[in-house]
Amino acid sequence: MKKLLKLSMLSLGLIASGSTFAQGACSVNYTTTNAWGNGGQQDLVITNTSAAKTNWQLCWTFNGNEVINNLWNGSYTTNGKNVCVKNASYNGNLPANGTAAFGFTHTNAPGAKPTSFTLNGVACGGNASSASSTPSSIPTTSSSRSSSSTPTTSSSRSSSSLPMDSARWLLNNTKSVLNFVSVKNTDVAETFTFGQLQGTVSSSGQATMTIPLASILTGVDIRNTRMQSMLFESNYLPNLHFTTQLDLVAIDAMAAGSTSTLSLTGSLILHGVIKPLTFEALVIKHANNSVSFSPRKPIVINSTDFDLNAGIELLRMTAGATTIGEKVPVYFKMFLTKDNPTNLPAINLATVPNTPLNLVGNVSQGSGDATLNWADTSSNETGFLVRRKGLDGRWTTKANLGANFSTYVDNLINTGGSFTYKIISYAGSIPSLPSNEVILGLNGIDPSSSSASSRSAVSSSVMSSSSSISYIGDATRGKTDWENADIGCKFCHAVNPDGTAGASVSKIDPRNLRYTTVSGLAKYIEDNMPKGNPTACVGQCAADTAAYFLSLTPITVSSSMSSNSRISSSSSSLSSSTSSKSSGSSSSTPALNGAQLYVDKGCAGCHGARGDNAMRPIVLDRWTRLTLISKIDATMPLGNPTACVGDCATAIADFILSWKPIVSCNADEDVLPRRLRLLTNREYANTINDLLNISTGATIAASFEPDTEVKGFDNNAEASKINNGRMDAYWNAAKQVAETVSMTNLMTCSAGTARDQCANTFVPAFGKKAFRRPLVAAEQTSYSNLFRLGSSNEAGARLVIQSMLSSPNFLYRAEIGSVVSGASNLTPYETANLLSYTFTGSMPDATLFTEADNNRLTTPAQLRTQAERLLATTKAASQFSHFGLQWLHVDDVANLQRDKTLYPQFTQAIGTAMKTELETFLNELFLKPGYKMADVFNPGFTFVNGTLASYYGMSGVSGTNFQKVTTNSQRGGVLAMGAVTTTLATVTGSHPIHRGLLVRRNLLCQDFAPPPPNVGEVEPLNPNKPTRERFAAHTNNPNCQSCHQYIDDIGFGFENYDAVGRFRTTEGNNIAINASGTISGLAVMTESDSYSFTDLRGLSTVLATAGTESTSKCLTKQYHRFTTGVSEPNECAVRSSYSRWQNKSTDLRDMMLETVTSPTFLTRK
Predict the structure, then answer these.
(1) Of 39, 196, 203, 434, which residue is the least packed, with the fewest Cβ within 10 Å?
(2) Pfam families in the record, alphabetically (predicted)?
(3) For 711-723, what is each residue's pLDDT tens digit?
(4) Rounded to an integer, what distance in angstroms lies between the CA atom of residue 896 and that of residue 891?
(5) Whole-number Cα distances in Å, 1129 to 418, 838, 1134
(6) What are φ and ψ of residue 956, in 5° steps?
(7) Are 198 and 171 spatial neighbours (Cβ–Cβ below 8 Å)?
(8) Can you tell me the distance from the alpha carbon of 1049 to that of 1035, in angstroms, rounded to the nearest whole number?
(9) pTM exceeding the 0.90 threshold for the entire prediction
């Protein structure tokens, strides 16, 4: 109290005459420029009489009842009569003796001019300020209610009676860091951060962190700008805030070097939304005046919770990305220091404005005006946000209004449908709770009315319609709009000869749009285009522009009868507004006419707008141009095939095939994206086994959620993601391992070694292995500090092990490269990781680390040398077995359930032996030189032990060891493997569909859509009816036949093998097996090439001879899926890999080795 009294007296004693207050830190010229009965205008000039500043904040207390309603050249916060003004982004630099000016207008008559000011928390007399801000009214862990029933902090003092509260702890902006990971295009993970972090803890324990959102750092300037405007809307919601209450007594009581775990509950304030947030934090007391906080596991922020998902969708469309994740994990470590030599005040957040009440609305069905009205119950708001939600469920900010607004009009004439509205008041970045919601929409408007459009409806090519209004989109008019400089489409999206528009990040392709109809695209144009002036093209203009752009789909023709390749026309021509047939049946009809015919002939109603009706999907890879034309001409539409023949069938076929992107492999191979790949459970198990010299990794990883399989493989980069449950499992596993692992071979120093010395040897050595790269200086310092917190050297090492095993640097494989933007080469250590996990499924060995240390992993020869070395290891055998089992869709054979009455001979031991047979066979073929693709099907040998040989009925084999034996026609090759035929069966019998799908999907890479629902089941096992007859009733179903005509005949070729892999010649009650069949379309399923066979050996022979090219190409694609973690690998990369393999040799081993010689193996973008 004496100190405060002294400061007050000192500041009063320094008041100079007039309106200029000469003080130690600054002088302030406070001038009344205008005054009126209930308000006025004030202009202030600050002169800095102390050291230079890069940011400034001037604070004072009004002597009257002034309320600021507008301020320029800065930003302000108020609590009662206390005011603080911060510099704007352009006037923060304040040199010694320099000046800064700002001004404001206010309501209410002014009192006497303020006489006490502080600059950056220091009284302008040179001492700590005695004026103060109150705690904000953001909810924290202990709260009370103000008279307005708005949540407040634990303080119960009124805002006008609190003295200035100097911060007890300050955030160390230099050491603190906050990152979040964004995933785009399904598997490209990028780490973003912020350039500015601010934070304080008041003497009452009120902790507040503020992040200026304009400081977002993504590594790409244009992306920074887009996130500021499209996502955060930081021009009027500039900051993120987090507030919580800390127990300062407990923190002060912590001994230096000790750790603690706290459960923190606070409020996250972001984008006009306040949400409670609870997480466990690790607290480390580094010194008496230094403490850090970090979450025990990543905090997952869901954009939907903060009305941000519409902004993410806008970013996605603007960037041309296929996806951008709407949930992000956030990692941070905040360092607080108790040093506050200049007595900076605790951060003062604005009081939460009162919630707008009684929102009501009505719609004029004539004009389309939706009028909103609400009660403005707050006196401190900066403005109001009008947010609107459509059918997509995403809230967008429709308007940002100033203070004191209570009405808004939104015109729905061009939108259609209904919308939900809510109103949020805000002060600075502090929002109120949202108002009640109202739903408004149009019932229907005559499109010819003058209020609907200034253009008359004319005949055109396509129509946009909604429940409220229909606009006829005319492509010819749209071309004029597109090229209109006032609208500006062509400046970003000039039309290219191939029918796309724009270049680089502005490139858009009419075949790859999310919006494939005029109405959908027109709505997007209305709401978002052109950037910066979305009202420039609405209504008829938007519909016409959409029609023009959708007409740019290139005309496509087939390059040959036997290939799926398509060549785009050299230029894109504008289709006419009406459909006309050419006289020649083989001529190509413009794609736009095909699109209209696709609708007119009922195709869209049956198959979906893009063949995406799950009941009757169109699988593009199944067709060539000629086979699709033939199919449509002969059979479509169902029930009336003569309705579309000749030119009609050709036009629709060309339109359907235009959905598939054109593949041109004249340029270099496609480059994979820069990304982080989460370790699979198997990779995790292998890695901790090798890292810690243990053998329990598989048991530990079994506690994790199973990896998601995509296209049969468990390492898909898109599907591999961390959620809260998985992170908990990682943390628990790290804790368990760290507490129990033997330190004998891990410690690099003894118990008697000095703590610092031991930390400086253990941390970099273990860290390099755990992170699969050397630690950077900051990491080494951080983990060394953690090491020192242990009660002994061993205890410190266990702390480091636990922390590193739960770090993203351990859990993820990095493929980022050394360049921040653009194409970049992988670092030597990333290359070592890529080689090791590709060929062994685990971390790099000592040799790879040495090669990386010496930068000897850069040339194709060096990479192939290491790949050959790795393929000779036992780990490579295990890794390729893992690939092979997934490639051939083989389950855990030993634990398959079979009817013990029908198959008593099948035991767990037999299943285990079958799996070993397959694994040994695959390792022989793929890891040793000299074997060809034909040997996969007809090798003339297999591997069995005495038990399995007896089960198969083979003589001359005994003992438990597996031996390479010559086979007759019943055995040998993957199709006849017991593991394959048994897996692809049921509990009671064989299953031709499963077996036929193995050949089509896994060996020929010809896919099928899922079967439609309610198609019925196959007849149950009947000893008096052969399998063919039982399946015929099912597969002859018209809903099934279009697919099963390509599947079942292949599956019948396996019928000599029962549900447990034994060879048979009869089934049921001595019914003779008929295993004959045909297989057609080896390259493209619907082509006419056809091959007959009498049994499985005959089918294997077809695949080993006529099918060699198709099966080899499919194997290459499957191996790319496995090594890259991409479900649909780039077609050009697969073709190039296949060509390198065939040109090198046709050995199966070279198929794998040639992957590392790709010119893009070490490159990412």
Answers:
(1) 203
(2) CBM_2 (PF00553), PSCyt3 (PF07627), PSD3 (PF07626), PSD4 (PF07631), PSD5 (PF07637), YceI (PF04264)
(3) 899 988 888 777 7
(4) 8
(5) 41, 16, 7
(6) 85, 10
(7) yes
(8) 11
(9) no
